[in-house]
Task: inverse folding
């Protein structure tokens, strides 16, 4: 149970993996931070282990004391009884002779005096002389005498033995008397047991004192022992934990303050852990190392030039197949087997038509074999996800393979070589680049056309009317800025591609920034009859951020919201500042983004597959750039959207700067 | 272990979250191999959310890259943290993989 508690305490920090699957390196990393808690617990547990011994010892001691006192009492009683019996016997023996003499002489009054005196002097409870028929001749209590005149003779009984009995409170003895010439009689004596309360209490007090002293000594020894045994107790607990499979040193370590044993134990635990980690690593190395070189070793095991060629072809990422004139495979390298989804050792002597389904490729090969095709041909074919692949996650994955067929000239036969390359990614990249160029030229042309138009207007009519000229120049300025922004965006995206996009942090006054943004978009919103709301908190912090890039990111988010919201809708920009982060949400009531498109809108050149989106000009770069900027600042942009209802983009930036 | 995947162009980016240990290795391997077959090897393993790898996890990675080595390819890893990189280096396995700093460069390597 203790071990489970420790598991629970330690669980969040040190990974206590099930036995056999211990992490190789991570265990050490998190350990030191958590050592205090388990150690504090170990201290408690160490004490309790010794405490049970202490309590046990005290109980045993008390029981021993009680037994001893009882035994003393019993022995004392036995001694008193024996003493009283002896006393009574002595009295009986002394009295017996005198009584016999007096009875034989018939001296009744002397006998009675003797009996009374003896009872008084000996402290007897009863002393009587009786005849066998029960008549009492003499008694210490005169009222009990019922024989006044001693007869001459009376009956004689066979002499009984002296009988002494002892019960809890008194000793009763009967002595047979034999009176010569007259008959037999008996002397009955009863004496109370000598009570010696003083002696008894003295003995008990002695036992008590000794007991108390022993208890005290035991207590002192226990305290000393406990101090000495704390570490041992903790080590014992640690061992119990270890027995349950616990191996983390953070759990097994013992507080060094507990005693001298703790330090060597901890050293052992650390050493064991180091050894175990080392062994783990070694094991992994062995399990893995020998097989890491299989490829090269098997290749070099081939003989001479043939093996070298095999190895060389197998190191090619392109598939290579050599077919003979009957279109059977003569040779195929490893990559070819992968591209054709076939087992490599089954490839030789297989008919190519069983491997390659594409008719164009087969036609080319036939051309080579019948001699009509003498130059190299390149055929690119698309194939859907291969039949072996599971549906679902991989569905829709299209692969483009490029087959290059070259005739191989030989004297006797017309064989051919096929090279297979996977050009899917190039194809995709080309497509998106073409898309981009188309969009970008369109995007660039719009402001250029506007500029040209207004320049013409300004030239034609501006000379006459300065107000028209001013208006034209204004529009030209605006369009030039738009152009500048587009070019900047393209450059930034190129930088993202190259991984060289950098940010330069400086003071960023958010209130100014939002003022400018609102001014930029006010006209556009007004033209489309869109309500543009800005919700700012009363106090805005000054961020340490790249002003230009953040401005572009926000510009893109708000611009998108306006672009994709139909007339009469609304766009809301809300800013929320907490101690740790700045959250800007841009929500619109626009066309929304379908669930299929949502994960992809941040990809470069990607534009949603929605006819309403395609109508609007755009490069497909804005969101890519915005997210990259957010990430470079340590923040993120997330998206929530529902088709036809609107989208909400949330930009989160960490803010270290204090509120201005 | 939660495994998320994302397509970038024709490349599938697999991002497992959580330690790669004996308990997770079979599921992980199956997932990656399925993607590999479906994409003819155009797979990037984003390791940024894997805190550490144990020997079973290493073996799974090794088996995958070994299988790819038959087609003269190697598993492309990116974003591996220091602990994971250390393990790969100490076990001499690092040369069997292609390493990239981030997903973007790894994906670009297919061009």
Result:
């Amino acid at each position: 149970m203790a071990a489970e508690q420790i598991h629970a305490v330690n669980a969040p920090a040190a990974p206590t993996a099930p036995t056999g699957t211990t992490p190789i390196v991570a265990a050490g990393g998190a350990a030191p931070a958590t050592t205090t808690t388990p150690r504090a617990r170990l201290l408690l547990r160490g004490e309790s282990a010794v405490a049970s011994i202490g309590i046990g010892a005290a109980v045993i001691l008390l029981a021993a004391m009680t037994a001893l006192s009882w035994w003393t009492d019993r022995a004392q009683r036995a001694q008193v009884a024996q003493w009283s019996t002896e006393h009574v016997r002595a009295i009986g023996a002394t009295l017996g002779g005198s009584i016999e003499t007096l009875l034989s002489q018939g001296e009744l009054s002397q006998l009675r005096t003797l009996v009374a005196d003896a009872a008084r002097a000996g402290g007897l409870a009863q002393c009587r002389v009786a005849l066998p028929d029960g008549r009492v001749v003499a008694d210490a209590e005169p009222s009990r005498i019922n024989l006044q005149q001693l007869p001459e003779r009376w009956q004689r009984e066979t002499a009984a033995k002296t009988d002494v009995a002892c019960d809890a409170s008194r000793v009763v003895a009967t002595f047979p008397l034999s009176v010569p010439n007259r008959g037999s009689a008996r002397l009955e004596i009863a004496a109370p047991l000598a009570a010696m309360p003083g002696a008894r209490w003295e003995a008990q007090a002695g036992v008590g004192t000794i007991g108390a002293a022993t208890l005290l000594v035991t207590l002192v020894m226990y305290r000393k022992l406990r101090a000495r045994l704390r570490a041992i107790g903790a080590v014992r607990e640690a061992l119990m934990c270890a027995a349950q499979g616990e191996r983390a040193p953070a759990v097994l370590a013992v507080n060094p303050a507990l005693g001298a044993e703790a330090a060597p134990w901890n050293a052992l635990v650390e050493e064991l852990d180091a050894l175990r980690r080392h062994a783990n690593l070694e094991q992994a190395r062995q399990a893995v190392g020998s097989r890491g070189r299989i490829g090269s070793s098997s290749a070099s095991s081939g003989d001479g030039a043939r093996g070298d060629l095999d190895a060389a072809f197998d190191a090619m990422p392109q598939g290579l197949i050599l077919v003979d004139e009957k279109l059977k495979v003569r040779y195929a390298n490893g990559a070819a087997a992968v591209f054709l989804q076939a087992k490599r050792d089954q490839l030789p002597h297989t008919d190519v038509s069983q491997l390659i389904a594409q008719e164009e490729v087969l036609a080319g090969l036939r051309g080579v074999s019948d001699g009509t095709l003498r130059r190299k041909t390149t055929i690119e074919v698309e194939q859907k996800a291969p039949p072996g692949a599971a549906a679902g996650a991989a569905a829709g994955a299209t692969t483009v393979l490029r087959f290059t067929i070259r005739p191989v000239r030989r004297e006797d036969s017309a064989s051919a070589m096929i090279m297979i390359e996977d050009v899917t990614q190039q194809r995709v990249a080309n497509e998106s680049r073409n898309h981009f160029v188309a969009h970008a030229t369109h995007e660039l042309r719009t402001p250029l056309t506007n500029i040209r138009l207004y320049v013409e207007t300004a030239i034609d009519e501006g000379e006459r009317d300065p107000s028209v000229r001013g208006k034209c120049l204004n529009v030209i300025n605006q369009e030039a800025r738009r152009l500048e922004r587009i070019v900047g965006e393209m450059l930034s995206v190129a930088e993202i591609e190259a991984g060289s996009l950098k940010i330069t942090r400086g003071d960023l006054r958010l209130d100014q920034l939002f003022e400018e943004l609102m001014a930029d978009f006010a006209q556009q919103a007004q033209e489309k009859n869109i309500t543009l709301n800005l919700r700012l908190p009363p106090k805005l912090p000054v961020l340490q951020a790249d002003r230009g890039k953040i401005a572009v990111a926000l510009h893109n988010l708000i611009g998108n919201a306006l672009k994709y919201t139909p007339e009469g809708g609304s766009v809301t920009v809300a800013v929320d500042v907490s101690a740790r982060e700045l959250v800007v949400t841009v929500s619109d009531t626009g066309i929304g983004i379908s669930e299929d498109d949502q994960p992809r809108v941040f990809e470069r050149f990607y534009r949603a597959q929605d006819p309403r989106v395609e109508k609007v000009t755009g490069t497909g770069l804005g969101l890519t750039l915005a997210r990259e900027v957010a990430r470079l600042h340590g923040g993120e942009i997330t998206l929530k959207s529902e088709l036809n209802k609107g989208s909400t983009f949330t930009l989160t930036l960490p803010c270290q700067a204090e509120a201005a | 272990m939660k495994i998320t995947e994302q397509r970038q162009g024709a490349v599938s980016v697999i991002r497992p979250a959580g330690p790669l240990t004996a308990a997770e290795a079979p599921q992980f391997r199956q997932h990656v191999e399925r993607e590999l077959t479906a994409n003819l090897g155009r797979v990037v393993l984003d390791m940024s959310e894997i805190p550490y790898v144990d020997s079973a996890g290493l073996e799974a990675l090794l088996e995958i890259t070994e299988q790819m080595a038959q087609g003269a390819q190697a598993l492309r890893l990116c974003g591996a943290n220091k602990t994971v990189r250390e393990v790969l280096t100490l076990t001499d396995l690092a040369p069997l993989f292609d390493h990239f700093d981030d997903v973007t460069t790894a994906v670009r390597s297919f061009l």
User: Anything to note?
Assistant: The mean pLDDT of chain A is 79. Residues 36-105 of chain A form the longest helix (70 residues). Chain A touches chain B through 61 residues (CB under 8 Å). Chain A has 18 helices and 17 strands.
